Structures are given as C-alpha cells and as structure tokens.
Amino acid sequence: MEDYSEEDYEFLNLSLSVTTPSSREAKIMKKKKKNYEAKILRLLQLRENMLRQDHHNHHHHLQRRKAGTTNNNNNLIHLLLTTATAIDEDSNNIAASLDNLTDLYQTVSLTGDSVERVVAYFADGLAARLLTKKSPFYDMLMEEPTCEEEFLAFTDLYRVSPYYQFAHFTANQAILEAFEEEEDRNNRSIHVIDFDVSYGFQWPSLIQSLSEKASSGNRISLRITGFGTTLKELQETESRLVSFSKGFGNLVFEFQGLLRGSRITNLRKKKNESVAVNLVSYLNSASNSSLLMNFSDTLGFVRSLRPSVVVLVKQEGSRSIRTFLSRFTESLHYFAAMFDSLDDCLPLESAERLRIEKKLLGKEIKSMLNCDMEMDGVDCPKYERMEAWKARMENHGFVAMKMSSKSLMQAKLLLKMRTHYYYSPPLQFDDDAAAAAGGGFRISERDQGRAISLGWQNRFLLTVSAWQLPLSSS
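RESULT FIELD:
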C-alpha cells in the first residue's frame, strides 16, 4: 500500500508524553505511524464492505441463524473483550487491536443475529477510540443522526417495545396517585417538572388520566415544564401536547419548554399546587454533558422545590464501574440484552429494527465508549446497581415510597401484550430457577415493593421508583 501524508491522515495520537526523540527514534516512529495508517485504511475498507453487504444479505443471515451460531458468537465476544483490554491497557497494543478489529469487521453484520449486531457497534466505538478527534474518520465512525432520524428511531422503539412505555406508564401512575393524595388541598392543580422531556411521549397518557377525573364544572389544571436539547424539539413537543390536550375540554393545559442548562430563577409555583418531578433516565446522562447539572446538584435543586413526588427511572447495571474496561463490559451486557429483546419485537429483516439500532442504540454505545475522549474530565454515564442510586437519593433526604398494586398490575398488563411475557416474583429475578424459566420481558417487584423493574430474561433494564421528602422537610 502506498504512503499517505501526515496532513491527510492524522489518525493516531502517538506522541504520548514522549521527550524529543533521536533521529533514529523519529524514523522508527514515522515508520510505525505509516504502518498504522495502512492498517486503519484496511480496517475502514472492511467496515464499508460490511455496511454495503448488509443491504442484500438478509437471507444469508437468516440461514445462519437457523443453523445456530453459539460458538461463533462466543468467539466474537471473546475477541471483542480481548480488543477492549488491549486498548485499555497499553498503547503498544495498537497493532494487535487493529488486527482484532479487522477480524471482527470480517465477521459481524448489522443484519445478523443480535450478538453480531451489537458487536458491530462496539467495534465502531473501539475503532474510534484508536483515532484522534482531528481525524476525519473519527467523525465518520461517530456520525450523529439528524434530529429527524433520531426522532423516527425513538418513535419506532416506543411503538414496538415496552421499554419506554413501561417507564412512562409506571411513572405517570405514581404522579397521578400523588395528585389524588393532595386533591383536597392542591386546587386541582399539578405542575410536572420534566428534566428530559424526550419529545413529550410520556404525557398524553397522563393528560387522558387526569381528564377522566375532571368534569366541565370542576376542571383540572396541568402544567408541564420540560427541559429539552434543542429549541426545535421543545417547540414541536409543545405543539403536539397542546394539540392533544385540546381534545379534553375539562383540562387546563400549559407547557413551558426550557433548554437544558438554563438557569431557573422562578418556576412560577402556584399556591398549593402539587409538584411532581420527573427524572426518567435523566440521571443516566446527567454526568455526561456540561449542559446538565450533575447528580448531586440536580437532587439538591429538586429538594428545594419541595415536590410531592419525585419519580426516578434508571437504566440499571450489575457491578461497580470505575474504569474504561468495567464500563465497556457493563455496557456490553446491557446492550446485548437490548439488542436481543428487539428480536422479540421485530423480525430480523425489519427496517425499523435497523433504524433503532443504528440511530439510537448504536449512537449511545459509541458515545459511552468515547465519552471520556469527547469531554476530558467528565464522568461517563453509569449503569449502576439499584443499591447505588438508592443510597444517593437517601443521602439527599428522600424517602422511597411503596409502589401501588395498580402500578404493578398496569406494568404486567402492558407486557401481556408481548408474546414472551414472564412475571418474576419478588426476590427471584436473579435466581437460577428464574433464569432457567426462559421467557423474554419480565416484571419484578424489588426493595420490598418500593421499586418495579423491567428486565429481559435474567437482566434488569429499567427500574422505576417514587420518592418523597419526609413531612418534617416539606
């Protein structure tokens, strides 16, 4: 392969705290860099071939899936973990890492089984980690979907999977019950502060539920203050929710959109209104952006609002995450379950599945693996155990509320619409017996009924809990 100029290919950051090299050392370094450039070009060519072939390879992968690919998948996972370890431990392993990634791109597929697909996106994340941010190929690997593409993928996932529906319906039930508890003193008014409005998909069901409790002579007032990433997102969210609420004449609805990071001086709290704070997956990303308050600041601000209820929805992990490799391993477990669950929702050849994985989940995977490169000194999102974030909530003075039987029943009914529904009784989710029972999506009560989790097989995905301040603090 011919030589490439450093100006055209600034691929690798090889000047890692190196003192001024001798002439001989400089020649060796230059030769190594040229060799890496050639390998990276080969790597990216294989990746492009994989992407092109996936457009007409559905039948081939369906046949492979029927024939069984357990051994192949085990080899893929082993090779992926070996590559991640090499990248994490020693910059001298760059050549071996590139060779491993080359082998992966020759095997994985975006239209294969769930393991092949998830490994393909993790391989992208690792390949990007080997490049400097100045490299044009870094941007190619980390390509961001447009707002329209991301919205469409979010809509697809919302429609086909119980993932977000479980979170939203269970959270809304807790908010509705907090409103009912204070109905004799809240002037039939509730103010929801949503730290991540995410297109507003959560709120039509709450609007409808509140409307069913109201009448033309005794209307209910609902205000939503929603934080979003862009002005356009907030405007479109407001338009959709206002339009939907017009179908309910017995409900007074108001929406206020704020950009994340906005300084809040006055939320215009009305006298005696119930205040509900909605933290649906917000705290998973709160430490991953300079635009967001960190966990502690967020909970301190929430406490100052004196809310009637705080609804927390967390993506959940199973171990302590302190290093890149532990973050990598935990993320792999989590997203492997997510990709596998999509096979329960959509056929392998589905264009919707490909869009969800490419524009939504794949983006999150690559961002997770490179967040420390994108934002120096900023912690990455954490998939933590329930016990970890429970302790943080309690340290900020919040007390967990018992989730109602209606919340559990609603979650179970949602999953009954899915083919492989399985209800896991309390304290049995992690048991061998529960894992051996098979099944797909699962619902489990946890922490003596103070939390409800959605899982896929033997893996927790999301956990919903409701919190309040003690009466002495209110």
